[in-house]
Specification:
Elements (H helix, E strand, L loop, with lengths): L2 E7 L6 H11 L4 E7 L4 E6 L6 H10 L4 E6 L1
Length: 74
Amino acid sequence: MMTQAIFQLEPLGCPSCIQKIETMLKRTAGVESATVLFHASKVKTVFDPKRIAADEIRTRIERLGYPVLAVRTA
């Protein structure tokens, strides 16, 4: 069963941030989809919790240089 998580980021500085984050997450095993909402500074993901945890997704986003302020799972 897939899980959805929304990651609230610090304000994004440029639209190219969108592609950088989405590309990395879409190449991550266990992540089915990833959409960055630039003006809201949020990343919406759908992932398989048996293959990857929300904390690991958060770590990967932060390794790219985008601090995560909050995570909400559904």
